[in-house]
Each structure stands twice: as structure tokens, then as C-alpha cells.
Task: structure prediction
Amino acid sequence: MKSSRAAIGSMLICWAGGVYAQSTKMPPNPSVLWTVVEQKLVESGDTQRGKKIAERCSHCHGEDGIGVEPGIPNLAGQVPAYTYKQLQHYKAKGPRNHNPMRRRVRRLSDQDMADVAAWYASLEPAAPDLSQPQAPEEILKLVERGDQKRGITACAACHGVRGEGAPIDTPAIGGQKFEYFLATMQLFAQRDRARDVYNSMCDLIGRLTDEDLRGLGRYYARLGGHKMAAK
Ligand code: HEC
Ligand code: HEC
Result:
């Protein structure tokens, strides 16, 4: 419940903040609205079929769902509805523009996407990246309590206290790669990446400094991945 309240809060912030937003560009529309049919489809994901499909992805995302290069995101242990939605976003082109990814997903059916999302969700999330420094107090505060003065909701309110993500489609960010984390935050800031239907990340991002973003990226990489508890 806490996270849905936070989501509504952020939606209001986005409406009010829109007038003052740094970028006047509208973020692209998300392509998944979570009808009952879509939710059921994701729940029906078949891991063994998904494993087969993922053979085409493993030279980049790794056989174990851990990206083989710094800019390639980890998918292991990810919330399946989130993975499914991102695949739809690459296929639709616009919500997320990335040609190599688009080429890989354009022939996947909705069922294929649900299956491959189930496969990655079943894998062991990334180990803590201990090469990253310990997070300073200000970063822990942003994660756990946010910053009321700047209108920043705590990351943990939506992404969970261990960065494990939440239903329906809030991603796990614990254990994500630092370089990918920064790059994708940049896309949100430039409004080149679709948000979810609540606009969760839209204006929040404009309130974080570069230093905050780097600190948060390091914190979540060092934390390592955790799986969202099964419903
Ligand atoms: C050529 C390398 C490559 C291949 C092959 C590839 N990906 Fe990706 N994938 C990437 C990169 C790079 C990104 C980050 C792109 C961006 O910034 O939007 C990405 C992003 C993603 C994301 C979004 C992750 C997130 O946290 O938002 C998902 C999901 C994904 N890929 C799944 C797949 C699946 C499923 C396949 C196979 C059908 C696949 N990828 C094949 C390189 C690849
Ligand atoms: C109101 C809820 C909410 C809050 C607060 C929030 N997020 Fe998010 N975040 C989301 C949702 C939902 C998405 C998925 C957006 C989409 O559909 O692409 C997301 C996406 C992300 C992503 C992209 C993940 C990926 O794999 O590509 C990162 C990184 C992220 N958030 C970091 C943060 C950080 C750091 C904070 C705290 C400063 C934060 N978020 C606060 C809801 C939230």
C-alpha cells in the first residue's frame, strides 16, 4: 500500500511540477497499461520456453542474466512484469529507443516476452559489487527517507528497502550495474525514456544532482540484488 500511495504522490508532483520542469519535452507514452489480460499473461510465463528464447540474448546479458559489459543491464532476478513491459517498450520504439535491443525483440510475441521475463526472474540476482565505496550519510537518507525540502520521495518507498522492486512493475535496482544505472537515469532526465503510467520517475529525476545520481548508483551496485518476495 505504501508504494501505491507514494506513486500517487509522485503523480501529483509531476502534474504540479510540469510547469517548472527543466525539459519541456513530454516523455513518451508507456505501451503497457496493465489490463487483467496483460497481468495474466505475465503470470503465465513459462521459464523453460523463456530459457530457450534467452539463448539469443546471452552473448550480451550473460547466460546467468548478468550483463557482460558495464553498459548492459543485469536481468537476473528482475520483477517479471517490469521486464515484460520494457520488451514491449523496445518493440514499440519511442518509449525506449535502442536499435540493438529493438532488433532482438521485434519478432517476439507477447507470450515470448512473458516467457523470457519469467526465465530471467527465476535467476539468482547479482552479487554485491564491493569495488564500490560505502555510501555517505546523504545517500542513505535519499534512499530511506527521501528529501522533503526538494520534493524527493524515498527510493525505498517504491523500489523496496533492499532495492528488490515491487508489484506490478517497479523494477529491482539493487545489484544493477553502475554505468547502466547512470545512463538510464540520464534518459529519464532527458525524457527520452518512457515512464510507467504514474510518471513515477519523471520529475523526481530533475531534483537529483549528478553527485546524488552517482552516489545512488554506487549504493545500489554495492547493495547487490535481492528478489521480490513471491506474492
Ligand atoms: C547486442 C547486445 C544485446 C542483446 C543481444 C540483447 N540485449 Fe537487451 N539490452 C542491451 C543493452 C545495451 C540494453 C540497455 C539499452 C538501453 O539503454 O535502453 C539492454 C536492455 C534490455 C532490457 C531492459 C533492462 C532494464 O533494466 O530496463 C531488457 C529487459 C533486455 N535488454 C532484454 C533482452 C532480451 C530478452 C534479449 C534477447 C531476446 C536481449 N535483451 C538481447 C543489449 C543487448
Ligand atoms: C513513486 C515511485 C518511485 C520512486 C519514489 C522512485 N522510483 Fe525509480 N522507478 C519507479 C518505476 C515505476 C520505474 C519503472 C519505470 C518504467 O516503467 O520504465 C522506476 C525505474 C527506475 C530505474 C530504472 C531501472 C532499470 O532497470 O532500468 C532506476 C535506476 C530507478 N528507478 C532509480 C530510482 C532511485 C535511485 C530513486 C530514489 C531517488 C527512485 N528510483 C525513486 C518508481 C519509483
Q: What stands out?
A: Residues 54 and 142 are 35 Å apart (CA to CA). The chain has a mean pLDDT of 87. The pocket of heme C (ligand 1) is lined by residues 53, 56-57, 59-61, 71-73, 75, 83, 86-87, 96, 98, 100-101, 104-105, 116, 171, 183-184 (CB under 6 Å). The chain is about 45% helix and 0% strand.
